[in-house]
Structures
1.
Amino acid sequence: MNRRTTLSALMGRKITTTKSAASTKLTSFSLAPYTGEWTSERAAHLLRRTMFGPKTEEIALATELGLSGTIDLLFEEKPMPEPPLNYSFTMDPLVPVGETWVGKIYTADEGNLRTVIRANRERSLVAWQMRLLIESEMSIREKMTLFWHNHFVVQKSTVRDPNYLYDYITLLRSNATGNFKQLVKDITVDPAMLFYLNGRQNNRRNPNENYARELLELFTIGKGDLAGPGDYTTFTEDDVIEIARVLTGWRVFDYLTVNPDAPRGPVFVSNLHDLEQKQLSHRFDNVVIENADEEEYNVLIDLIFQKPEVAKFISRKLYRWFIYSEITEEVEQTIIDPMAQLLIENDFETEPVIKTLLSSQHFFEATLIGPMIKNPLDFVAGMFRQFDIKIEGNLNQNYRSFLRLDQTMEVHQMTYLEPPNVAGWKAYYQAPAFYQSWISSATLVPRMQLTDLMATTGYRFSGQNIIIDVLAFAAKVENGTDPNVLIDEFTKILFPQPISQAQKKALKENLIPGLPDFEWTVEYGDYLADPENNDLRTGAENRLRALVKAMLVMPEYYLS
Amino acid sequence: MKRRNFLKSATALSAPVFLNGLQVAAMSNSSLLPIINSAPNDRVLVIIQLNGGNDGLNMLVPIDQYDKLMGVRENIMIPENQLLSLTDTLSLHPAMTGVKNLYENGNLSILQSVGYPNQNRSHFRSTDIWTSASDADEFITTGWLGRHFDPQHPTFPTDYPNEDHPDPIAITIGSLISETCQGVGTNFSLAIRDVESLAPLSEGAESDLPDNYYGQQLGFLRNAIAQTNAYGDTIIKASEKGNNLSSLYPEAGANGLADQLKIVANLISGGLKTKVYIVSMAGFDTHAEQVLDNDPTQGIHASLLAELSTAMNAFQDDLKQLGVAEKVVGMTFSEFGRRIQSNGSSGTDHGSAAPLMVFGNCVNPTIFGDNPVIPDEVGVQDGVQFQYDFRSVYGSLLVDWFEASEADVRSYLFADFQYLPIIQGCEQTTSTNDLPIIKGGDLQITNFPNPFIQQTTIQFDSNDEWIKLSVFDAKGGLIKVLANQRFAKGSHQITFQDSRLPTGNYYYHLQTDRRQQTGLMIKL
């Protein structure tokens, strides 16, 4: 057991109201395939962790397909999305409204026109990304794209160039369940990354070590305990310096270019590259890297990946993304180590290891179903997705509505393409709080305000009223005229674990305050028989709104 | 013995306690305690976290080292005639007129070269070290203030708020709670974005919590909701009662830090008894374009320092006008300083120690420590050698401001604690000309030969006291502790020899429980 886990096990208990001696109740430490009963609860758990807000019919489908059938479906290759469009800006000389700006340069500066064009393209990009989350198909791809974004962080406020940001996120998306080693290579010379961690300013005369350090500490091998001055067990301060030299010579053309011949992508400038030998420390077996010009970064990364700690480091991160934050000694030995082994055996292909993890006995442990506090994107996009909240309208209205949603993410503390810093969101690395760091007085209030709004009045925006269609949501429930069935079925979709009888009773009070069950059966039945009748419709709808509103503020809804 | 157990026994004992051979309980609090008009229960500590690693050498410029700095960071140096002079040998960045004003009013204390042994240059790890106050090779998940609060509030958050403690223990302005306030069981800080957004939340129907991970997290959420509601009321009331009077705050939205501090001043003046507020600003990770190529007085770093300085000055002005200035002390910190050498991108990379500011009516308005010594030959990785361990700053504030005992501070914070008279009285000083500069240099320490090839001898005077003598390399790494013991009165010599060491710059660091000094030693 490493020291950090020991200490967090000793000192990191969060809840004072529950004593947790044998609290984890983990019984299965095994990546062996899950062979237990396949129920809709298990299916919903798998989908919640791999998608944003699974829908009623998707949970039904997964229940029917079984575990391996569902896994196959989640990993099925899907075509890449169409690129984002110019949705309304009429002053971009090279990009008419309705066409994509991807791959387009700018025209010579007229006043601040270029700045305005850039800002419009960026808005189009983030709106497009928000739509991809909400309109995503039944696939693991968006969850994994976000995983890699949290791993290989760039911030749009630093990179600034929408084209390079598009290329970056497309690289992650197209390799979402691809090869980790190849992804590290590609990201090392990715233009957005060269901007973000100053790789483009790294040259033989003035090495800039920003990327070199994060490549080791955050992207591949991780930082171990301090073993001596400047020696972090997995690498040393001198390695940072030497690796910065390996990576010298890469440039990117400025993001506001007006030059039609400017290459889009990284450019290797050999006279900016350090040709001398680079001497790594004993942590890398004192290897000397000879000059290999633009191939040198590949040599370096192959070398880093020879260290077994790389596979463990990424395995822990995948574990915290898909399973739980606490990695006990048993988990380290029985889950992380075999995951790492599997990665190495498959030359760092991630698909086999993720599939194995998601199909394992461990994944379906009862104590691991539901203890993950949803991150804000999961919470917000998941709600839009699972309730089929429609954002339609013409091109302009559609993009503007998704843009608005993206902009509201700031108060929830998680904006796509804008993690707080290069380490990503705290929830996935900061012990002992981990997922709990999403929750504070400052974030609880806007979460609850948002669900209240979506469940009751909705918000009018850009020509549409964006709101949960509670009648459509209820219509998916068979025998929904029985209020107990209705609440049970809603619970299965919205909460990870069953709730108590007392809670069900309290929820029923929201649906039919002080009334016997049959009143719902009659009223809702009447509406179903005559859905065009406005009185019947409004009566049923308002009762359902009260129920959904009450369910969405329950802390159970915050868990996955 | 575990820290916690030790803490309990240490506080229970009235007999002297020995730590590192040093008798610590001999000194009672009262002998140290400065004259402060506010009652201890009313005192507030405001922490300003500067995320990213602030370039101390361009913030507080040692003028006596200016030429040497020009040799290694010319592309980012501020022209000497543009700097704001504080003393004969120290000047501030020209963007910091507000801080200069604080200094001239006797409201500012600056500690030079604050850091720790074995400087870690990862943002995340070094931030953890600063917030947990651990050794560099020690992993502690509790925060330094969390450990201070733990014994006072052992059951928190159960049954909080209550009659004795109606107000939040600590508040973070922003959306994330602060790691400094992480206790053994829970975090003592409440995060608020602004007072307006504290609407009551629905608490939902209860159920039994299953005894597993799911139950733990569900319990956490329920607690967070209940507490937000409970504290929301008191915060809103304090805010309605409180005020802001300073005209020095920039307009809302123009200075993020000032906006945060304005909320703090408002809540303090409204009578909220919260002990600690944490505010923060980001962006100090200036690897590139720290200064503008055509004007080094402008650029990212200048904007950051202007924001910081303006906000601090406006806040202090507000506190005075609100009549609560004697209750409040502020402190800045950043996870590290930056390299002595600049890089070719008009920026600086991760370094070691840097200055730290403490401000308020009751601070000792002076500059602690010697100017950093810039070697003739600066290695690419060289940082500023630390003089003061940051935990001595924390500990001194806990002792003088929050009346923690020195023994407790040694047990839950820092065994090698050095008391620093950062808090003085709250009397207004009239002229900064009379201010004593607290130098390390009264320790009569030298080494010879220097430069050295094989070995060098360090000679120092002891006043019959515990002395720790260590040698560091220029990256902040601890090479060797040469002595950690009591020395009889008189002059002593210790020889340092390590033939495997590469040539370059090294530092000795001598510390007693009241004084410290560092010096440059060059190995040829």
2.
Amino acid sequence: MLHIFSSTHSGIRTTTLLCLFLLFPIHCFAGNNTDDIRESVIAQATEMGLWEKTEWLNLLHYSKDSDAYISKVNDEQFFYAMDGKENPEAELIETLKNLFSQTEDNNQQTQCRFVARVAWLSNQLDIDKKSLPIVDCHEYLQWYNEIRADSVTMIFPAYHLNSPSSMFGHTLLRLDNKEKADSKWLSYAVNFGANIDSDDNSMLYAFRGLAGGYPGLFITEPYFKKIQEYNRIEHRDIWEYELNLTPVETEKLVKHLWELKDVNFDYYFLDENCSYRLLELIEVARPGIELTDEFILTAIPVDTVRAMENAQLIEAVSYRPAQATEIQYILELLPDNQQQLVIDLSEDINVSNTDEFTQLSDLKQKKIVDLAYKYLRYQNTKTVRDPAIAKQSYKLLQKLSTYSADIDVSTTIPAPFPPEKAHKSKRVTIGLGERLNNKYADLGFKMAFHDLEDNKDGFLQGAQINVINLNIRAEENVGLRLYQLTFIDVFSITPRTEFFKPLSWRVYSGFERQLTFNKDQLTYHVTGGAGSTWEIIKNHQYYALAIGRLEINKQLKNALEPAIGFITGFLSHFNHTTARLEVSGEHFEDDVYRLRAQYTQNFAFSINHSIKLFARHEWHEDDVDFSDVNISYQYYF
Amino acid sequence: MKKIIAGLALLTASSSAMAVAPGGENCGWGNMLFKGQSGLGAHVIASITNGTSFNNTFGMTFGTNGCSTSGTLTYGGASMVSSIMGEFSEDVARGEGDAMDTVAVVYGIEKQDRDTFAKVMHENFAAIFPSEDVTAAEMMASMEAIMKSDATLTKYIA
């Protein structure tokens, strides 16, 4: 300590002496000199109008709202200027001022903290590096060396109905390194997500997520954690899109990412979400490319993949199946008796001593043990470690290890239809029909996303997710009026098998017309239910659910009328058409009931065009019955 | 300022978790076979939002998830291996797989020696994983002893 102090002291003295001797006082006072350089740099930047450049606006996440700029970053520590959030010019000047100022902690100096801003500014302006404070950015360098990226891959974990934020899929980036190419597990993943309060329940989450109540942050962590999370725990297939960003562009992205460390953005579930933020990062990496403009109300992850594809950023696509997909695929290749062996062996290791097992070839045996282990782990994915299960699992591994490593049991799972090639997210429909003996023309718009009978290619089979589905009808004797407006409609039918026992469920809510006591009343409802689905033969399913319903209907006795009911039906997928036959009903108090049978068939004549036939007959109390039939053209865009 | 304090608290929390060695409680994710690998609770919350909850950081090194072991690997390398212990045990039993390759890369094993590594690991499954209660530290110690006594692999154990 003493040593440092005295050497500084003598340093000052030496400088002073030198000044006196050389009689160049201006150059001796480093402070003044820096001030001059700084002022000239700022003058140059102002003259060039640097603050208006796309690169600067992108780096600070400014967007133009009518005439004013506002940054999407919601964090004081990201700005130097007091009004930095709204003033790109002031922020640029303050950044330059701070660039020349010494800080107590090197890592907080502008050169270390805002590496991408500084890199760009140094490129634009005549900044003599020697005039800047000498800093050692060890925190940044340590991180940068750990990441060591030279290419970027966009990661798309597929749809996952049982989690609200993943219903539409999710996107993240992976920073790859050619040297580490043989183990992608070690690459870093970049994820933008809401930093949530773990005390919130899902309903509150949904509300706060929509309203922007959560701060969003970037997180980087090893990719194997994402594989564990998506492939293993959530059973989601992962699509990987290798981007053609150059090493130089990748470096820009990584540098900017460092600037976003611990920086809060607002997180909006629908638009400024995970996918949107990643597009902004790509815009920083490749200035001039425009990806975010088209996403005004919603940024659905798969649409952002399409935006990348349209901008010719995607170089190669690969598919990483979920563990459950793998188990299911391999199982289907086994004959029935061997499938049973897999189940039995997963429950009891002694099955490996039975004749039925030992008479099989070593290859078959190893395959069955391998699968039994995977299946046992799959079943216990979401449970707390149980010592008995752990022992059972270990015994299977022990058995597996007795087979030669040369017996290859690996199976390549063929990639299914890629999600970005599926039908698009928004839909308009035009239809003609007749209901209650009244002819009508129907105009429909759906903001997103997929109906059970829509072309299933690229989607999760048996997963319906609709958000904002509006139908307006011009009716012969009535005129133009709202027929239905559904806010949300999620319907999950996944077949049960001997191996997998998923729950089928449905939640939907919105306005719809219901004939009640001879009046075609506009009602509001919330309906939900649960049940099961069975696959009769491949691509043909039968489902049955019990439901509960709350309805606001002026014709009914209570303000909020409860009902119980059911939904049951067949869903059949053929090559270019999907058919659905459904019987459903609900029963209110005082013997008020509705029972309906309906048939829908959708013919997809290309990915984004289809013709749909619809027929329904409905029976009510007091021998009332009527029908609704229509034909419509649907266009996805 | 509040944010900085929160950040500091977080850092302290995670470094105290690191002290709970080896294969401490917050180490790894669900789907774990071996003892001391849990941490599903945090995951459930995170999965609802694609988001993060408390034990996430910017990932300065691999060591952010609370696993700790000592050995010839760096801190980050060892915590990495212990985080994929479940997957690795499966690959060792089978004789190949992504987790096997990853562990080989972490140990700096050159391409031409990877097959030997896989073969040696597979043949010594019983020694590396003597029971379902083995810890990550014990597993790595056995692995390293086995590598040391192998003519090809010994050079990777300094």
